[in-house]
Amino acid sequence: MLAFALSALLTRASIAYALRRRLIDQPGQRRSHTVPTPRGGGIAIVAAILVCIGLPIALWAPQRWPVVAAIALVAAIGWIDDHRPLGAATRLAVHALAAALVCVSVAPTFVTDAGAAALPGAFDAGPALRWLLVLAAVVTIVWSINLHNFMDGIDGLLALQALFVFVVMAILLGRYGAPAPAAAAAVMAAAVGGFVPFNFPRAHIFMGDVGSGVLGLLVALLGLAHLGQTALAPVNVAIACSAFVVDASATLLSRMLRGRRWYSAHREHLYQWLVRSGRGHPRVVALYALWNLGVVVPVLCWVNRSPRVSGAMSNIAIGPFEASPAVWGACAAVYAGGLALWFAGKRHCLRRARARSAR
Questions:
Q1: Which of 25, 33, 34 shows the shortest CA–CA distance to 81?
Q2: Would you tell me how many other CB atoms lie within 10 Å of the CB of residue 156?
Q3: Distance CA 180, CA 293 (A)
Q4: Closest Cα to residue 199, out of 248, 146, 154?
Q5: Exposed/middle/buried for 159, CB within 10 Å: 0-12, 13-18, 19+?
Q6: Confidence of residue 310 (pLDDT cuts 50, 70, 90)
Q7: Predicted confidence band at 355 (pLDDT cuts at 50, 70, 90)?
């Protein structure tokens, strides 16, 4: 309740601040909105999360301070970028530093021999493989930060996607015996919920880099918290985030293969093409919600259908990368379906856009 109230109150205050400081996103060729709109409202989400999660960590779990520092660092570079645009290299360097801080906090859990001995499966490997997993975690965190920034281009899309993922992760973390991360995910969902009325169905303020980057970091943090709880963790996270991962990754690869600068502003994501072809922002957001509710939720329910056994899940004793072939097949099917829809959607939007311009 506190996170929701703080987020709502601070979002209203951030609108006044943005208008006073002239932090306004103007419509343009590479933007999907048609009226000047304030930006930087994501600072309200960050502040609510730092008060409701960061402060308790500082008081009762000081060994996790690097995680709070990483959140503050990503928020700070995003806040600066919202005021004065920075180069891509500078942003990536800070994102990498934040990801390294996160891994400094969690790496001792499985990098040391003593920590690895307490964990099952894939972590029962040599130091070289364990450090490779740390490097993979850094890359994944940086990608999640930037992926969510790429997908913050129309009213309500990122906020509602983050709300969905946080609720799903709260349920999964609670189901697999991780009450503290589950509670944190619920607080994150509440903080985003306080922002949503100001951003959807018509945006009175945009989240800005300060919000989108932090939400990407938080999604990655919840994914890391889920590892070690169950062999299904990587599959659960991949499926829950599939809508954004498919759109952002396919668009990025498409631009790279065509020799485009992947980090420059553009309007080539599927959600942007849907808007360009004449669909309103609420309708496009509804299409992504339909994927989440019609595909993601049923598949996650099937994947996690095993009953509780003495307070722990029956598959918790095996490593976090040892899920059954059927489970990995379900994840592959979700992504194959997502890619098929991405290609079909892009072709449909191109035809529709050409028909509109020919009139």
A1: 25
A2: 25
A3: 26
A4: 154
A5: buried
A6: very low
A7: confident
